[in-house]
Amino acid sequence: MIGTLVDGFDLVLYGLAAALVFPQVFFPALGEAAGTVASLATLGVAFVARPFGAILCGHFGDRLGRKKTLIATLLLMGVSSTLMGLVPPAAQIGIAAPIIIVVLRACQGLAAGGEWAGATSFVAEHAPPGKRGLYAMFPQLGHSLPQTVSSASFLLIGLTMSPEAFLSWGWRIPFVCSFALVGIGLYIRLKIEETPVFKKEAEKGVSSAPILEAFRHQPREIFKGVGVSLTMFALFYLATSYLAAYGTNTLGFTRNQVLVVGLLAGVCYAVSTASSALLSDRTGRRRMIGWAHIAGATWVLLLFPVLDLGGILAYTVGICITTTIAGLVHGPIGAFLPEQFETRYRYSATGLSYSLTGVIGGGIVPLLAPVIIGRAGTMVFAIFVAVLLAIAAACTFSLRDINDEALDTV
Known about the structure:
Helix content: over 70%
Radius of gyration: 20 Å
Number of strands: 0
Distance between the termini: 25 Å
CATH superfamily: MFS general substrate transporter like domains
Largest sheet: none
CATH class: Mainly Alpha
Number of helices: 18
């Protein structure tokens, strides 16, 4: 859990900073609107890098083992995020500042592409049949809690200093301090044992090219798997990045108000993630995820009318419902995606499916939000997202549900 906590904390922290800080710090010459678009574009860089990280880390994870690869992803994520907190503003080093941020963001993406698939495969392979939802809940919570932790850290720092000081150096504190979590995570990962499922498979001989073997044997599952996580990525990153900027720039809320709402939304996300993961062992993961996609497609059509009521209560309700639905998908996918693939290439195939979803839902959707809304209005954007989530539901219902089967028989 600590590894995905570091991964999630750093990624969500970046999303908040991209919405609330980076337009002024790294893109001041572009103005508020263009600076926000440019800043959110850097958010998408990590999602473009994720598939490459999934292929690279998956290759080593399926050949050398889950444990060794997870140690490498943890270190890459931690170092990249810490360095982000040390990058001088554009006012001091000019265009070099956003370039460095983009490079570090790409490194985050490479690490994230390997971290999630490795962690969920590792836990799922340790779990007994019928309890994979329970076991996989913990790495999923590692990605859920950071929304609360990141919002709380920005909020507490913002309350103790002036807005000018926060923009100058206050926002950097959580990035630099995140390296302490890396130390804890590294200690834990050095102590854990490789999964028995992987050891058994390795005795037969590992794949020389896991991702190619996955495409040869299960191409449909890889592409359908892209749809499985779409609601989670689209709604979560919409809520935590674009809608944070929407709250301050369009609705006129203060940064601290938006951060408090983000904190509450993070609690809803974590509770929803844990509940859905646990229930999936009883109700079936395919059903849980599929109906959550349908709920998301319906809700997104109501989201902006609710937000545009204008009050902080409406904004809070809108963001919290959005992250709650995202959590309903997030909880079960930690077991559901690894269950779809054979052990020989599970890390690679799971990671690639999940990472490609990140490009669409976590990168493209928040990036297109200000563009589509600015030109065509909120309802057109909502319909666009609803169509994506309906496709996600169809992909999910077409996959198998194997709650009670052992993974070494898949």
